[in-house]
Design goal:
alpha+beta; 7-stranded mixed beta sheet; 4-stranded antiparallel beta sheet; 23 strands
């Protein structure tokens, strides 16, 4: 008799989860103390610099150890965070910001305006909104130790929104000496001014990373609200346990050896619902769009016809079945502005066909002159959802004659490799998948996926000047209706150029012990302040 994965898990869970944990994990993991939270995050933390990479797990790391000038509240409105006071000149071209009291780096030195100025310049090298700000700025300069100014060539009413944005590279403030590094060079010091300190002594790459409460941190007086307000830490330590095998992670959760599992497998959610000690919680209610990114610099996807072939090929429903068996968690998506943002629209979406259109894909591939070039698909084996989706993609490509090859690695190695702009023979790549919050897709100023500025842009490096001219109009359009019209024009070009292919949109709950409460729900990210453990 063939034993299914589901049947195996039922037996293991019924017999007692601790018995299902391999002896090596039991030996390395001690029962968590009352004020220590163990978390199994999705993917490996391969880079510690949230400006160097946009990897979600690195941004969550940044939320722990760094702070921001402004932060988004639960309604996605920008609120002062490190900034205590700020003002705008009568001609609306000069912003003055004053830091609030009590800001100190983890090495006990005082945060200064010079740190902020350097951080803005470094962030502006890579973030789409930051690039726009630097283009429009006359001067960004220190006024005194606690104050700095941003003087603009023309008014930019959305400046606080740009400074608070999380849709691209988040503007984390670093020490001036760290922020003076080019954005292409990693900052490795892990010294911020945020609510947690990174514990270098307990760092075990490939196994775990530890964060300790920053006792010097002075929270804002306001209540926590989204990423804004007072970042009050109620526990002493957080440990990110890297557990690549999902069955092991589930067993550890049931045994109480971890408190939080970021991405439990969808087919086992019904089993978790029946566990009296486990709570499933939907923290990101906006949903995540699965996005397939293609390398526009290298064959075969330097040819727009080859990219259009993939657009027509994709069977979104098949990908969604891989992600979750529950149709309530899965939806097709055809707008690059997502399903539920004010700018979602149906412009130029005639390519969508339930089940895909392999014959049309073959025709376009032939028109592209595809000659059997190897297509390398980056496959993160430690993120089961993405790994399974990429296996499905490889099979789809092979069925229409594409020479597809999977390149398995953990997520940390994938994020390093996707920086390579060279051909696959020199360690480059052809395709990888990332997930973007539906909320992010409605923010074209800062969302990297929306940018087509060539090699200055996000991985894949598509370029279209007509599209970029439209995107740069976004901050100057004053009404929602005008922005909707602009979004339709942008989407028409986007689906002609095809820098990205959508694979479907899903929502997914996290799993936690019921003793862990106070989690902040926010698109894609996992803040760790406010958590409490009974």
């Amino acid at each position: 008799m063939k034993i299914s994965r589901r049947s195996l898990m039922k037996v293991g869970l019924a017999a007692g989860a601790s018995a299902a944990v391999p002896s090596i994990l039991r030996a390395q993991t001690t029962p968590p103390a009352a004020r220590t939270v163990h978390m199994a995050m999705a993917g490996a933390l391969g880079s510690f610099d949230p400006i160097f990479t946009t990897a979600t797990i690195t941004t969550s790391h940044g939320l722990a150890i760094y702070d921001t000038l402004f932060s988004l509240d639960s309604k996605f409105m920008p609120q002062p965070q490190m900034v205590g006071k700020w003002g705008l000149s009568d001609d609306k071209r000069t912003y003055t910001f004053e830091l609030r009291d009590g800001l100190r780096w983890h090495d006990s030195s005082v945060v200064t305006a010079a740190d902020c100025v350097a951080s803005i310049h470094r962030w502006g090298q890579v973030d789409a909104g930051g690039m726009m700000l630097l283009e429009r700025a006359k001067h960004i300069s220190k006024k005194d130790e606690k104050s700095f100014t941003i003087e603009l060539k023309e008014p930019l009413g959305v400046l606080p929104d740009v400074l608070a944005s999380i849709s691209g590279s988040t503007l984390f403030v670093m020490r001036e000496k760290d922020a003076n590094r080019p954005a292409t060079e990693q900052v490795t010091a892990n010294i911020g001014s945020g609510p947690f300190r990174f514990n270098e002594d307990l760092a075990k790459p490939g196994a775990s990373f530890t964060y300790d409460r920053n006792e010097q941190y002075v929270p804002r007086k306001e209540s926590a609200d989204g990423l804004a307000g007072g970042k009050v830490v109620n526990i002493d330590r957080v440990v990110w346990d890297q557990i690549a095998d999902q069955q092991t992670a589930l067993a550890a959760l049931q045994a109480g050896e971890i408190d939080f599992f970021e991405q439990p497998p969808a087919d086992l959610l019904p089993l978790l619902k029946n566990d009296p000690n486990i709570e499933l919680e939907l923290l990101d209610k906006t949903g995540s769009a699965m996005c397939l990114r293609m390398n526009c610099l290298q064959k075969p996807f330097d040819n727009v016809k080859a990219r259009q072939a993939i657009l027509h090929l994709i069977d979104q429903e098949a990908f969604l079945r891989v992600v979750t068996p529950d149709p309530n968690y899965a939806h097709a998506v055809t707008s690059i502005f997502g399903n539920d943002t004010p700018y979602s629209n149906g412009e130029n979406t005639g390519w969508y066909k339930k089940g895909g259109d392999p014959e049309k894909a073959k025709q376009l591939l032939k028109e592209a002159g595809y000659a059997g070039e190897k297509v390398v698909i980056l496959q993160p084996t430690d993120i089961a959802l993405t790994s399974n989706a990429m296996q499905l993609l490889a099979n789809m490509l092979r069925k229409i004659g594409i020479n597809a090859e999977l390149a398995p690695s953990d997520w940390g190695a994938l994020t390093a490799r996707r920086r390579n702009k060279g051909p696959v023979e020199e360690g480059g790549w052809s395709m990888f998948m990332s997930s973007w919050s539906d909320y992010y897709l409605g923010e074209p100023i800062g969302t990297s996926l929306h940018v087509m500025n060539g090699e200055k842009g996000w991985y894949g490096w598509p370029k279209n000047d007509d599209y970029e001219a439209l995107r740069k109009q976004w901050p100057d359009v004053s009404t929602v209706e005008d922005r909707k019209a602009l979004a339709r024009k942008m989407q028409k070009i986007y689906w002609e150029v095809v820098p990205t292919v959508l694979l479907g949109e899903y929502t997914a709950p996290i799993a936690r012990r019921k003793t862990l409460t106070g989690l902040i729900g926010f698109p894609n990210l996992q803040p760790m302040w406010k958590m409490k453990k009974a």
